[in-house]
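agent: user wants the full assembly modeled, not chains individually. Plan: 1) parse entity lines 2) check alphabet per entity 3) run joint structure prediction 4) return tokens. Steps 1-2 passed, four entities, 862 residues total. Proceeding.
--- entities ---
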Amino acid sequence: MSQWLAIGAFCLAAGFLIFGAVALRPFGEPTRTEMDDYFNRYSQPEVAANNAVTAIVFDYRGYDTLGEATVLFTAVTGVALILRKVRK
Amino acid sequence: MIGNLPFVVCMILIALGLWTLLAKRNLIKLVIGMSLIESGVNLFLVSLGYVHGGIPPIYTYAPSGAPMVLPTPQALTLTSIVIGVATSALMLAFAVVIYRHKGTLDARKIRDLRG
Amino acid sequence: MTVVVRTITRLLLPISLVFGGYVVMHGHLTPGGGFQGGAVAASGLALVIVAFGAERLAGKKGLFSALESFGGVAFAALGFLGLGVTFFANVLAGSGKLFGHPVPYGPNPGDLNTAGTLPLMNWAVGFKVLAGLSAVVLLFALFGGESDR
Amino acid sequence: MSVHAPILAIAVPLLGGFAVPLLARIHKKVRDLWVLLVVLFVAACAGYVAAHVLEQGIWVYVLGARNPQETLAPGGFPIRIMLTVDAMSAFMGIIAGLLALVAFPFALKYIPEEEGKNLSLTLGVLLLAGIMGMSYTGDLFNFFVFLEVTSIAACGIIGFRTWTSRAPEAAFKTMLLFSLSGLFFLLALAFLYGEYGALNLAYLAAQIRGSVVDRLALALFLAGLLMKVAAAPVHFWAPDAYGEAPAAKTLLLVVNTQVSLYGLWRVLFTVYGGALSAGVGWLVVSLGLLTMVVAAFMALAQTDLGRLVAYGAVSQIGYMMLGVGVGLVTLSGRPDYGLVAMKGGIFHMLNDALTIGLLFLCVGAVEWAKGTRDLRELGGLGHGLPGVALCFLLAALALAGIPPLNGFASKILIYEGSFRLSPILGAVAVLASILLLAVFARAFQGAFLGPKAEVRVKLPWVFFLSLGALAVGILVLGLVPGFFVEELVTPAAKALWHGRALYLAAVLGG
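--- prediction returned ---
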């Protein structure tokens, strides 16, 4: 019974996802690229970086990267907390 | 449909991960399923940035004239990969501790918390 | 581990550390950056942990944690550096000071001394990732081992 | 410096979290002082930002731009991450700041001095940073990043008691659901990015017209965020998580849930507000009803005081969803009672934070004194711990919505609004409240009444400071709710209800 329920849920989710992929614009032909064109055009004059991705990672979206570094730090702290020696 | 095949492949990867979560009861396999979903999402994200015939968005010795692919999805994917690593590490740590207590990784046998 | 693994680890450790450093250093010019370079270097340390046993590095846990904290603080501090303008403003780029050379638009061979705070942030993140990933591998390897009982 | 207040409220606890392990090497007093200073600073910043926003409207802060108010690149689209603080975000910031002020002094005393204390305090500070980041951000991907910060920090805190097998199990379960919820959120924003090439909330809101991809993304947003807020079909992680985490830190987990709920409101009202069918509102309303009823019934069966309170906390999420859900249903017509229900739902967030927080602190104090939370073993604590008993009674009555306490002040608004949408909704909500009253009456009787029990441990005075602060808050909010509703809650409710155009204008100009 629960097996069939799982299969049903799975089919529903998979169909939903694949339908979404088909409904999206065609692969390789992004329709709205103002933001990315801006990054490709101005990463050199504004940030003086040849690598536009790094310019985004550390400048335009540097705050996200701070969050990301925090995630890694949090995870390491969490692992250290979970795997610590406990005297009990 | 054919034009969107790369997107569909990412979705199939995500669906496989969901199936792993639904069907498997081993904690490590659950972590693997989560990693599958995450790989699917990351692939989807990075494939959104592809432009036909595009080159990497890096100007060091770049061939001139070719269009560059969109850089933002690559930056987002980098972030989400690191987040995925962090999540997997933490979940594996929990699995290790659970194994030490219970001597098993079978989710059906370790349910202390019910109701 | 066997002699073969240990010998190859001795060979590979400097290579991976140097390559990791290279990837971090050229993050603003070539593919890569702090995270990628840090991960490459951490793979070398992970190899050491596998080959020589975690016990040998057990005393370094505190060092890793301090290095990671330091990387995080340095990264956040570089963000605070822009506070005269806005948080995370790249005040060094094109200023003529440290990493302050301007770059013309278009393909070029690349100049290390560019991109302002980016290379510094790359280094901070690189150290942080190196320390963080090594610490995770070390913690897992130490768990349940002799020093844990 | 005051120009930078919103970002400082996020960046300082991030920096603070990184520095805690370093400072702990110097001395534990230095570490404690540092943690308290950081929390105090965050609360002060949240207060300042709220005062500023309530007075002068939405506060936009663009990160890394030459000028903090320069939202658009040449060409008229946003490229950088920005913080967009409106009255609702500021309200969430205030809740987070207040509860952190109460929780951290308690936690400093409550968590025993061992290797794990530094790490757990670090995680606590980072969780606070994540909560502030989620409240203030105006960028979808940034919201995702801070969602993950809170998920990972929260799960680390939940798994604190590694000497039992229950805590890692609860943490694993929670982590599985949290990361699944995060991935759904990421997938949804990937769809939106693929369609519109943007990540800014306001810019996306201006583009969305309700196309097929928009609706798919909405479904994924709903699935992801409802998982994280512990709505009914996927609520099962919450009692485990709240029950297993150290009591003092549970307060932050509660705020984390609420701020995820805020994220849901932000997506529904601001991003999709222009193209939302009433069906989504009905979905939220019915899931809210299901949550409150299921959780109240589950609470009846609990013998563990911590899990009982945890189920109470889950059922309160149902009230918030009901209140704001009524607003969502009536969003197209905007009748008065919709706003009333929304005020109730949003006011209930603050009230729930205080009452549930007080209940968890009481549970923590009981566990500290007796070493157990099992209702079958407890009893008669009212003689030894009269203060704790009084606080528990006060919070339980407030939770069940007994006048003149704060729970009543917000629940009456929810009842009124939902009753006018459909009498059945109001009736179910009242019934769930009565059920909760019964549950907590039994819990109070089981733990505090009965033959006198020996209490040998003396509680530290800091505990009573935290308990007292929350109890005073409950009384004040209950006795003069009008002032707070007018000054804080109404602007927050209006920011969601009417404020979409203002939010868009603040970022996109015009």
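agent: reporting back. The mean pLDDT of chain B is 86. Chain B has one domain: 5-102.
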